[in-house]
Prior knowledge:
Elements: H1 5-20, E1 27-31, H2 41-45, E2 48-53, H3 56-61, E3 67-70, E4 83-89, H4 98-108, E5 109-120, H5 125-131, H6 135-145, H7 169-176, E6 181-189, H8 193-200, H9 202-219, E7 229-236, H10 241-257, E8 269-270
Parallel strand pairs: 1-2, 1-4, 2-3, 4-5
Antiparallel strand pairs: 3-8, 5-7, 6-7
Helix pairs in contact: 8-9
Amino acid sequence: MSLKRESALQHLRDLVTQKLEHTNKPRIYEAGGGSTSILPEQCLERAEIVVVDIDPQQIAANDYATTKVVGDIQVHQFPKNSFDLICCYNVIEHLDRPDRAIQRFSEALNPSGLLVVGAPNPRSFTGFITKFTPHWFHVWYYRRVLGCEEAGMPGRVPFPVVYHPIVNPAALMKFARPLGLKPILHLEYESSTFNLLMARSPFLGRFVYGFTGLLNRLFTKETNLRNGDYHIIFEKCDLSSEDQVEVTSQRLSLRSRHPHSQLDPTKGVAA
Length: 271
Ligand SMILES: C[S@@+](CC[C@H](N)C(=O)[O-])C[C@H]1O[C@@H](n2cnc3c(N)ncnc32)[C@H](O)[C@@H]1O
């Protein structure tokens, strides 16, 4: 039995609520926050919320942020200890350098602060299809199969995906640990694509669902290919000097794998 999205979200919200229980006015950074948040309402209501998003249309549509910034989360920097919670939900798969974004988050977090990451799982059926098909196919799928007429228009899903290697949850946790980010929750859950597909096209939906079940039985022992998405909550903790050495070598190896990647450090204009 796979975990469903609603249960996975409930686990995430319960833990966030519990951890922020004693913080009077939490400072929250929604990185690539767009116009909606998955965070628990009771936290949002009493929080100071900064949203940074690269898309001006998403920022314009956001009505809950205290501060709105049009900017690139891979380069946008905040002073140390700026936030109690950073949420980066369904964003890292779109980034050329999510490693740089995670590095910035670790610097901007308070000691014991939380980093919430949600992303599609590249080691799943839907993750695999998304990774190896072009963006026009994703737009076609949303429009024709799921019936979203406005898919692919400015500010509308689906956004182009990159799938940098650290989008893989195991790689992400390995990368984050030397930055002082310790995972305290890791949940993989069934992609909601199956439900959406079954609602729109029951025959195709059941076929794809059954097909992934068959693949699970035939080829995979530990991996559930239906688990198309994951949540990880990291807690910021102290680094030992040993970890400091590890982070340096990790950064070097990531740089050598992406030698031509360019970021514009001038992006990051307050809206
Ligand atoms: C799928 S949406 C998710 C929005 C929101 N986090 C949510 O869960 O509803 C992805 C968002 O990431 C933003 N985004 C993509 N690349 C970005 C970047 N380099 N810096 C900031 N935001 C970015 C997009 O504009 C979009 O709003």
